[in-house]
Amino acid sequence: MKGRVVSLVVLGVVFWAFVVGESYGADPQAQLGKTVYERRCAFCHGLSGNGHGTAEFVYKKKEGKIWKLYPRDFTFGSFKFRSTPTGSLPTDADLMRILTRGIPRSSMPAGRDLSDAEKNAVIQYIKTFSARWKNEQPGESIHVSAKPDYVGSPESVAKGEQVWKNMKCWECHGEQGKGDGTKSETIKDDMKRPILPFDFTIGALKRGSAPEDIYLAYTTGLDGTGMPSYEDSLNEEDRWNLVSYTQKLMGVVK
């Protein structure tokens, strides 16, 4: 009887090893991606990618109020910082950029110490959390032409301020771009959680502070937030002028 029990235990261990091997061992990249994710990402984003890690949220105090800032939920398949049109999946290059550079003014660190193989592997592993990656292809990257010479000029800033007013950017971001607009306390993300409008007057922008980065943010929007895409509602010149005004709010130009 004892021999049978031992045999069953051994058989169970062998079967478990076979299942694990089928899932990851047969694919070295998948195993590497899982290892990197669990070591570097799961603490915030959770083992299942739902954003409920040990550090589920961090607190930010603004104007005497406490706000919760949540890690990205990968199960939604929705990403803010992309080069692709609003509502579409990002490219691998988009995800590689975030992994390498991190996201300023957030808890997302830069991963420059990771090898390209590790970053590529964890990108593929992140895709396993949402069915969108099985059913859809990433959108086509939007090409940003060279920054026009007029960007940052007083004339462009003045035109951009008018665009800011016409598009009612101030309702969320405030008259001075401090994130204190009349609707700033009513904005929610796709999961109906309160979120803060961005304050342009302090520090770097999350997507990047170069004019091209700002232009791309206005073109693609930030999926999962209240920030829309202006690709269809503003022509290229208006978007570049809006970049100029944003730079003024940032203190980059006068």
Q: Would you give an account of this structure?
A:
With about 250 residues, the chain is mainly alpha-helical. It is built from 10 helices and 2 strands, in the order αααββααααααα. A two-stranded antiparallel ribbon has the order 1-2. Strand 1 (about 60) and strand 2 form a beta hairpin. The longest helix is centred in the first third of the chain and has 24 residues, at about 1-25.
Could you give the distance between the termini?
86 Å
- Overall pLDDT level: 87
Name the CATH superfamily assignment of the largest domain. Answer: Cytochrome c-like domain
Question: What is the highest CATH level, the class of the largest domain?
Answer: Mainly Alpha
Count of DSSP strands: 2
The number of helices is 10
What is the gyration radius calculated from CA atoms? 22 Å
Oligomer: single chain
The main sheet comes to: 2 strands, antiparallel
Rough outline:
globular
Determine the structural class based on helices, strands and strand pairing. mainly alpha
**CATH fold topology of the largest domain:** Cytochrome Bc1 Complex, Chain D, domain 2
Show unreliable segments.
1-24
Helix content percent band:
40-55%
Annotated CATH architecture of the largest domain: Orthogonal Bundle
Reading side by side through the largest sheet, how are the strands ordered?
A: 1-2
